[in-house]
Structures are given as structure tokens and as C-alpha cells.
Amino acid sequence: MSASALEKIKAIEEEAAKKIEALKQEAKTEIAKKLSEAKSAVAELERQYEALTGKTVKGEAVPRRRLSKDQKEALVITVGEIIKASKDEISMSDIVKHAGEPVSAVREAVHQVPGLKKTGNKASTLYFVK
Q: Which letter does DSSP use for residue 117 in this model?
């Protein structure tokens, strides 16, 4: 027995509705993924802006971040590696830039690096390890 035209139409409509629903779900997944990527990109740009200016994107001062004892010990090692990796002497501003930590914490860490030598004074001080 052959299906009537009305039954064929209903079958086609049901099949199309299923395909449309599947495509909508796929589009939702793609959009959610793009939103997640965009949010993480914006967060990274905001972090870079805060590190550069010391203020949030809205112009507010960035809250101070305190380092734990373990983080301070790790920073001493990191700063030592930064100084050793530089071919020549390195300035405090370059050390801070590479370390990505607050200036005060980097200053403390620099003074704890074993075998540290320095030349110059005040702003022109350069650091190196022999």
C-alpha cells in the first residue's frame, strides 16, 4: 500500500525537524567554543594590560598580590636563572619583566641569589652571576 501525499509530507517534515535540531545543537556547541576562546583571549589581554600599567582596564589600581613562602623561594630560583641566562649584565627592570612578578618581590629575590655580582649604582645597577 502506498503512502498518501499527506503522510509523505509529514514524514519529510519530521525528518527535516530532526536535521534542523541537530544543526542547532551543532551551532550552539560551536558558538560556546568560540565564546570560551574569546573570553580567555580577553582575560589574557587584560592581564597583560594590568602588568604593563598597574591598573585594570577600567582604570582601577590592581590589588596587590602577596607571594607565599614557597612562591618566594621559587622566585629566587627563577631570578637566578634569568640572570644566568643573560649573556651580559642585566638590569632590574629586565629581570622584573622576565619574572612577571612585583618589583618588591623581585628585589628581595635578587639579593638572595647566590654568587650575584653587580656593577653601577641606583638606577644604572646591572646584575650578573659568575
A: E
The DSSP result for 49-94, as a single string, is HHHHHSB-TTSPBPPP-PPPHHHHHHHHHHHHHHHHHSSS-EEHHH
Burial category of 86 from C-beta neighbours within 10 Å (exposed 0-12, middle 13-18, buried 19 and up): middle
Please give the pLDDT value at position 1.
53
What span, in angstroms and rounded, lies between the C-alpha atoms of 112 and 105?
A: 11
Band of residue 30 on the pLDDT scale cut at 50, 70, 90? very high
Q: Please, what is the Cα angle at 66 between 129 and 102, to 5 degrees?
A: 45
Full-model pTM: 0.53
Using DSSP, state whether 129 is helix, strand or coil. strand
Q: Which amino acid is at 123?
A: A
Q: How many CB atoms lie within 10 A of CB 56?
A: 13
Q: How high does pLDDT run on average in the chain?
A: 89
Q: What local confidence, expressed as pLDDT, does residue 78 receive?
A: 93
d(CA 8, CA 31): 34
- The pLDDT assigned to 27 comes to 96
